[in-house]
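question for whoever is on the cluster today: can someone run the full assembly for these? three chains, 1097 residues total. i dont have access anymore since they changed the login thing
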Amino acid sequence: MNTAAVQERTNYLNESYGLKSWLLTKDHKRIAVLYFITISVFFAMGGVFASLIRTELLTPPGDLVSSETYNKLFTMHGVIMVFFFLIPSVPATMGNFFLPIMIGARDLAFPRINLLSWYLLIVGGALAIFAMVAGGVDTGWTFYTPYSTTYSNSYVIATALGIFVAGFSSILTGLNFIVTVHRMRAPGMTWFRMPLFVWANYATGVIQVLGTPVIAVTLVLVFCERVFHIGIFDPALGGDPVLFQHLFWFYSHPAVYIMVLPAMGVISELVSTFSRKPVFGYGFVAFSSMAIAVIGFLVWGHHLFVSGQSLYAGLVFSFLSYFVAIPSAIKVFNWTATLYKGSISYATPMLYAFGFIGLFTIGGLTGLFVASLGMDVHVTDTYFVIAHFHYVMVGGTIMAYLGGVHYWWPKMTGRMYPEGWAKLSALIVFIGFNLTFFPQFILGYLGMPRRYHAYPDEFQVLHVLSTAGASVLAVGYLMPAIYLFWSLRYGEVAGANPWGAPGLEWQTASPPPTHNFDKIPVVTQEAYDFSKVAGEVIEVG
Amino acid sequence: MGTRLPLFPEQASTISAEVDHLLYFLMAVSIFFTLLIFGAIFYFAIKYRRRSEQELPHSVHTGWTLEIVWSVIPFGLTMIMFGWGASIFFRESRPPDNAMQIYAVGKQWMWKLQHMEGQREINELHIPINRPVKLLMTSEDVIHSFYVPDFRTKQDVVPGRYTTTWFEATKPGKYHLFCAEYCGTNHSGMIGWVYAMEPQKYQEWLNGGAAGSLSAAGGALFEDLACNNCHKPDGNGRGPSLVGVFGSTVKLAGGGTVRADEGYIRESILNPAAKVVEGYMADMPTFQGLITEENVVQLIEYIKSLGPRPGQGQPGQAAPAIAGSIPSNR
Amino acid sequence: MASEVHNAHVESLALREQFDTEEQQKDASTLGMWIFLITEIMFFGGMFAAYTIYRSAYPTVFAIASSSLNVTVGAINTCVLLLSSFTMVMAVRAGQLGQRKMIVFFLILTLVFGCVFLGVKAYEWTEKYEEHHMPGQAAFHLEGTPLQGPAKIFFSLYFAMTGLHAAHMVVGVGLLSVIIFQTMKGKFSADYYTPIDISGLYWHFVDVVWIFLYPLLYLIDRHLPK
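^ ran it for u. tokens below:
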């Protein structure tokens, strides 16, 4: 392909210039880029908070910062990472960019609502940042009552309002995706020809639409409780502080799937492209996303095993929690089976996919520990839980996020990233991650409670290991930030389909034109049909 | 700098070993599947590495059998985990009848513990080994959580209600007590020690304390607060007699009954109008804000100590129609 | 096929560029509104869950507190809202037929009914304020029960739920104003009246929420023995 021609033609990046053309854009690709920039900033902020937390924990006494500051650090780390990075991470960026292209649409169904959701995230983020600058918030990202409603003297209201607003950003993104998938598919793009990334984002949309309003209304109640002392969560007035936990986790457990389902979708794409095979058990993987979205709403009570909820509620929630484990296991097995007799490339995105499968396996298996009642009583609210969900959120979602960014980088920017540096950083991330979080499993089982500013001496060795890992991890995250930026200018120019992948996004130019396709494609093949892609074919296996 | 690097916490209660056995099972399953997945990825990645840029592998057809096998086998394993964990949880949730009771009150940022015999401790708890100990806990402010890792027990302590936990220490020693639910600025300072002692030593420790028993303190308080002006033992006061009320079933004004346990008595002191005994007026003043949670505990123990009503058997078995409420016209 | 698709694209000004046909656009907008309403159901659902839990915990207090609300005024408001739903239906019908004047007429009627509802609501709230039934007032007191805490919870839920509902009404009134303006500018015809249609959906939803709120808040003491 003539690379110079690719660069010169009109695409979504060079169609118009100027700040206004970006801030008022309705193009889903430009909005995705806006999201990329925004959530990278949030990720950096959350990362700085994490580094300070880990530095404090190098020594047993609380010596670097005061307990008040420490509490604010972990709260803001949680709030920023969960609500302003992980929840928008894959769907708002790669989902926004590629979901319409993958189903052969010119844009999402509601481009203006799409832009509105970005602005809502900005307003929500601004409120959260205002709370931080004004003095911070110290309730933990979980906002448990009555601490958050009555006892905390920090900026709870501004932060809650920020999350409330950002919640609507998430709802509108989900709504947009659902309608787009239902109504905007190209001719011939049947439901079971859709890439699994689209299925995953569709399932995520369902959770966003059904779950997010519940956290919104819960935060409204927290707001009223703080301002008007209305008594809903105040035991002194006959209210029930544990009701908050039910309402909070009714959203926040499914929210875990908002964070990880799109990541799983990314992995399906990567595993397929870099083994040159359709994903094994396509239907099972697609339906497992839907199953996770549905069952995910029935398990919130497993966060409350020691809260004083009834014994039988505990039994039911533990039982149901195991049902949600099965669809995740199905995905892992199917990805692994996809490798069988494939043509496996070791390109950077695939290394991240390997990393994801391995780390998500550990994160998922330790989920079985915490779903087991007798075990959870001991490990809940300890570093075991911290390690478990970081394996899923960081080892899972962020690995997939980075894998996806590398995979689609040539499509989004028209340039290749430097492969050698990328491979090195993937390796550093993997090592740093395990060194950071594996010791925390042991710490947790030993009894180290979470959110502790100071801790007994015998835990120090493991904490030092964890902090050392965190510094390695930080290097691993900084490297892509530098070389990806570098590649925007100096990277090798990428063709339309550098990976030889069959998805519709690879059938249009890199970067794609404003309305994605010169001509809306008519789909005649199943998903992941490689037979039409590879030029000169040598059949193997 | 700590010199030892422990990998497992001590087994210091009857339940510890059971939780650890469950852990070993979970670890075995996890290690098996982790090795399986990592092994498969490495093996496939090397064996089927791309040898030419043009190669196109045959697609392998999905088999229902395989999908069912790798859904059903893990599901079976998880059901073992569920059953095993649930059976431990059942035992953890139900204190034995012969357990000795200790009251715990959480407060930003300390643990206050009271023994029946009247000893009061802060951030320290002395208990005898080989005897089940039941904790009845509440909080004066926010939610806390009572956690002793070496006993593998944890229970949230919630304001406005009583929660319970129990354990039976097996080894004399000094064990960490943590607050495991984030409770504000000095959360990591809300820690203490549990001292498990030989029964004899425990007795000696108990005898060292000067205070009178909890119920005696409660009795004194009962008179100080003038509770006895209305709650007369013969039932002729403005309030019902409290003799024998504990453990009985109380008939309420406006229909319904309630079992008079610690939670009900606490509610009746702090929020008397919530559940009024049939035949009485809701004219008792609230003691919310006037007495502490520890005072409430003393009053409860005093009421318990009043024993069964004369002429009746076990308080718990009293006929619901009579127990706990005496018509005002009698 | 793609070329036809592009031709269709140019035909109508009301068709946005991401859609192929007007039918697709209408379907998408309607589906979008339905999904939004599902979100709204979950939004109110959190409140209803809290209501259910506390009503079962304090049934008597809730009944007493409920009887202090003004049932007649509530009933009048219910009628006003039902009437507004009727006029909204008529407006959509007029939209289908492309009768621009009738659209404007019925939309204005709907708008007026909506404002009447909000006015009555404001009157009721003022009444509550004067009676010291508003949580957050230092002088809060409900007669007839010693349980002031749960009484406060009832009124908190009352204000939160009716407040949230009223906020939705305000949004609806804003929506109607925009559509009336657009109709007068001649934006809609029998071929394109989707905004009227989906605003109707929204308006009916807000009505239906009130149909649940009215008995749950105003009428719960009716079946209790006096």
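summary bc i know u wont read the tokens: The first strand of chain A starts at residue 538 and ends at 540. Chain A touches chain C through 49 residues (CB under 8 Å).
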